[in-house]
Description:
The protein has helices spanning 2-19, 25-35, 40-49, 56-81, 86-89, 108-123, 126-145, 151-181. It is mostly helical.
Amino acid sequence: MFQNMILFEENILLWIQSNLRSDIITPFMIFITNLGNSGAIWIVLSLGLLIPKKTRKIGVMSLCALFLSVIIDNVILKNLIARTRPCDVIEGLTCLIQRPTDFSFPSGHTGSSFAAAVILFLGLPKKYSFTAIILAALIGFSRLYVGVHYLSDVIGGAVIGTMIAVLVYWIGINWVRKETIE
């Protein structure tokens, strides 16, 4: 069964390469994937939220979620699981960006994107925060498109990032309530 899942994921990446990659879409997807490098877009957005007092707590929560995502995804899980990148093992799969030097599972780009985006979604008006979820999903998909992650890496990153965000948001909201009661 595990072998069937691996074959399924390999076929997804090869299908994306054969059917979705194009000269028009590729520069956009490379741009999107680069937005997630080191969580840069999310750090900038979070720091921006620190400026107005009204959004400061959401900015702090987002930065905390990003920090936890880096520790859990990139420091602990990637090294514990040590999954080889698909572009290194799938015959015929072309990597569209410089090959990352770390392991594949979970997707750190996707994990940090969902960690920050879900905090923004939970704490900001939906007319703004829904865009963050779309960007997080695009960054996750871009990792498949450029050939550096399996589908399960991206799903794993999204789930872990979401769980981190919900936990950080819950702690942040309950800490704030407790602080205002005392």
